[in-house]
Amino acid sequence: MSVLAQAQSASPGPAVTVEVSRVHSLVRFVETLAGSTSTYKGSRRAFEASRFNTPEARRWLRRYQSIDHEPGFDRDGYPAGRLASMGSIEPSYLAASADAQDLPDLQRRTVGLLPNEVLVSLDSMYRYFTPAFDTLAWQPHVAELGKLRTAYADFLTKSQLMQKFSRLRTFYGSAWPDALPYRVLLNPQLDVKQGFNGLIFTNHATALGNLVLLDCHPQSRTFVDGTSVVFHEMSHTLSAQQRLALQQQLEGWYLHHPSPNRRLAYNLMEEALATVAGEWIFAQQTGHLESGEWYGDDYVDRYAKAIYPLMTGYVERGQCIDSIFVNQAINLFDQTFPRASTDYVSLFRKVIYWTNDDDLQAAIQPFQDRFRTTVTYSTTPILHSDKALSRAQSGEIMPVIVVTREHKATLRYLRANLPALRKQRLNSEKSFLLSMTGPDGPIILVNAHDPAQLTAAAKLLDQQGHMNLKEPLVLLK
């Protein structure tokens, strides 16, 4: 164990605060209504069922969706697909919202993060939705949120979970000093129903930077269950702050392994490790693991259960992830998922949708309706799109190419640039689905002359479940 690892494993871990902020909750409320994937969907449904869901409100939400209020940027040198490879101003903006006393103060704190034009637009949107926020989210729950904040802070102090968390930090090889505290920001859930034995449980959290955004019912006191979710998300921040050299080594250990499933195992690594971390925190408090499903995805759930003894052994020994861990984890993946390399559920996890359709979203929606993705790019046009072509050629992400016009020229361009297609006889006048693997990895090509054929292609993939490598091309009616 390194000197750094010894110091971290013996430390009390980073400090943690639990906070409630009206401005922050208002910002998150508007994000939720606009359909942010990091927010609790049930609260959006509660708004949609309320008197505040008017045509005017929906127009405001469409305006919000059209604003680039979370610009991202690439970080050079970090492995593509890892959490650290992409940066965003979002953690800084949300931290400013938690510190702001009111909306003018939020603007002052965020000058320079976003263009003033965007800040003014956001301010007008927050003001428009303030009556709905006060009525549905804040006034009914603020008093109970204050009590929950105190109870949660007391629980974290007495349970000493942050000291256990420091052992996870050692495993990840994360550069996260004790002097950098975590901030748990409470936001009210609006539609939570009572569960088993009348308990009210929150299970929606996300972490950005040192912020833990916890959507919770204010009456919830199921801290032992809830912290397994919270620490799952906090583990993602440790992964994002893993030392750069270790991230590069880790990618090499995975991608140079001889298993055909090496990239799939690598792509699932983030969620599987975080799921084990959350379950280990749960077991530390209860003395046993949770029964049933740990994660709402069969691959992640089964992979996490397969590597749980391996990872927790490392954690309890104070040992950092290494090449031996990676070799054993990939072997366990192969044993658990022998058909993963052709399974659409697995292959669709990282996708670039590449189309020349005039309506990009309509063209890819049938596939998004049937297959869950963790990393999704979507782009148009096809012809002479260098960035999309580079991604399609990389082997890091599966291209799903949807051709709905200029069929002859587009297929000629694709055959010239994607080696997997050169051995296939592709008739541009026919509608077809091609699903195969080639030198750069798996690829799906849909050539459609009727929009209904896109739905038919997506449905066929769903029904097949796996690539049929003997008959990769199917004509569409």
Fold and architecture overview:
With 477 residues, this protein is of the alpha/beta class. It contains 20 helices and 12 strands. It has helices spanning 3-10, 22-33, 41-48, 55-66, 90-99, 103-110, 116-138, 142-159, 161-172, 223-240, 244-255, 262-267, 269-286, 298-317, 323-336, 344-347, 360-370, 386-394, 407-417, 452-464, and strands at 16-19, 72-74, 86-88, 182-188, 204-208, 211-216, 350-355, 375-379, 398-403, 432-438, 441-447, 473-475. The strands form 3 sheets. Strands 8-7-9-11-10-12 form a 6-stranded mixed beta sheet, with helices on both faces. Strand 7 (350-355), helix 17 and strand 8 (375-379) form a beta-alpha-beta unit. The protein is globular. The model is unreliable at 194-199 (pLDDT under 50).
How large a portion of the residues is in β-strands, by DSSP E? 5-15%
The SS-based structural class is alpha/beta
What number is the mean pLDDT?
Answer: 92
Question: Spans of 5+ residues with little confidence (pLDDT < 50)?
Answer: 194-199
- How many angstroms separate the termini? 62 Å
> Which strands sit side by side, in order, in the main sheet?
8-7-9-11-10-12
How many whole angstroms does the radius of gyration measure? 24 Å
Shape: globular
Number of strands: 12
Helix content: 40-55%
Characterize the largest beta sheet: strand count, sense, and whether it forms a barrel.
6 strands, mixed
Number of helix segments? 20
